[in-house]
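Hey, can you fold this one?
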Amino acid sequence: MLNSGNAIYSQRKLYLVQICTFKDLIMPRQLSTSLSDLILAISAFYVANQLYHHHLKPSVGLIIQGIAASIGILRFSLENPEGSLIFKGHKFFSWLAATFGIPAIALGFCGIYSSAVLANKIIIFVAIVAVSSFFLPTNMRQLTTQAVSGFAMLTILLLCFMYRNWYGLGAAVLYVVSGLIGGSEGQIGPFYKVDILHYGLVIGNFMFWYSFPTVDPPPSSNTKHYLQNF
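Sure. Predicted structure:
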């Protein structure tokens, strides 16, 4: 009887271990980040599709962001992605989104406000960062990436403020604030900082949609799509 009881206890213990192991496989610690990447990818591709026919540059920028987020879904659904092809691909497209994606959005605003001077500065800055990335050490490469994306955001803030494009201004502020919060590891309360970054970009993407003229607003919306003449 005692042996039978021990056998049942051992079976239950093994069953619980198997459940915990299975749970770790299908629900890794960073599953919430995988989900936020999914939502970010959907928003980026959706808004890019809406902008494509009228504003190609910001559309391309958002497509790059969507690709980075899509690879992030896979990266953060894995238990130990470090060193894998998915990990390296996510790092590369995240760099691409910051170095080329955000400046492409800024070039879209330069286009609608006919600011060739700022557009040329952005293009030159991006070219310098792209070339220097081949020989700069990792920490310096990160600084140059932050510098070019920061300059692009500053351009958007300046143009949208000058032309009273409040949606564009709000989107740029959200991008900046989300980047400052999500630019480090850790949590704020129950939320991962990187998730806060992703959801901030999601809202910012839809605000960017509203900020560009001649694009149809979302269905059943009575809000004027752009506010340059507000």
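The beta strands are 187-188, 191-192. Let me know if you want another pass with a different chain boundary.
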